[in-house]
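hiii, so i know i said id send this last week but things got crazy w the move. better late than never?? heres the sequnce for the chain we talked about at the cafe, plus the structure i predicted for it. fair warning i was half asleep when i ran it
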Amino acid sequence: MDFLINNWIYIPAFIVVITVLVFVHEYGHYKIARLCGVKVDAFAIGFGPEIWGRNDRNGCRWKVCAVPFGGYVKFHGDGGVASEAADDIDEMTEEERKVSFHHKPLWQRAAVVFAGPAANFIFAILAMALLFMVYGQAQTPAIAGDVQPESAAAEAGIEPGDRVIEINGSKITSFEEMRRMVLIGLDEPLRMKVARGENVLDIPVRPHIVEEVDADGNIQRIGRLGIVSAGREFIKHGPLSALTSAIDQTWFVTTATLKGVWQMIAGSRDTSELSGPLGILKMSGDAAKRGDSVADNALSLFNFMIFVSISLGLINLFPVPMLDGGHLAFYAYEAVRGKPPSAKAMEYSFRVGLSLVLMLMIFATWNDINKPWVKDFFTGLFS
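okay and structure toks below
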């Protein structure tokens, strides 16, 4: 019973994160579709039987379904929730064609599809900018407060008090910027410019790869210099500065994620780092328990939601049939060839895409199941 009392927040936190981000994503599709004159038949949060719903004045059925994982927008002329054309689409009346998604110009269809992932990125940027204005952005001067013995920094000759001003041609203004480049780059060599007193030194450094075990027993391979920061502060931004910093942070998370995926494909990063729905559930609950008060917990969960939103937007842009990126790839083909792929090619593509998505989900879930926290969670649940 104590276990349930202490960990009840996990499922509600997970549902909040998924519901909000799915709504943001689907609302992006919905809003641009309406601007393009497309009739929307249904806007659903979740799948399965409807547990609540209402019709708006435009004939759209807004509903919440029993399985709170995912969602969809069904456009007029769709044959299903994957936005494939209905079998009777050629039999539509002229009035129906005017509001049918599949009869819209190519650029409008592409805009509607792209709007979902774009909404996730916009949400992340605006939410992050709001945090930077209200609470400030954590920032640490890029100064070596200490250098660990036998570390990559020590081997390269970096000394306490050195200020890192540039890495691989990119200006460095904070310890966080330097840390981000090192973590995701593993042991890639770095060309560093370091200010030491009145002198600027060029120091080549190759970070060491270390394996780090987090609180849940997950093993991650990361790059490490061995420089200890000198202090931390929170800098509040004005609207423009907050927006610029939020865009920069979103860009970093996006490129770092892509780099991490490529490292998994290349074999330099362990695929066990990939998490699925159970992993998101665990991280949602952890985020909701991280603070010392209800307000702190809500802020922590909101911050976690921002980074999940970026990941959701990015994943949906992958050129895999069934995902938004797959639809955009078909539209690119249509733009080049002047006609869409054949119905048979589309059917097989969607089957392959569905298989890939399911296999990835199964693999990621298997990763989650094999992590130590899953055993501890279910042991506590039934003990």
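btw The longest helix spans residues 106-134. thought thatd interest u
miss u guys!!
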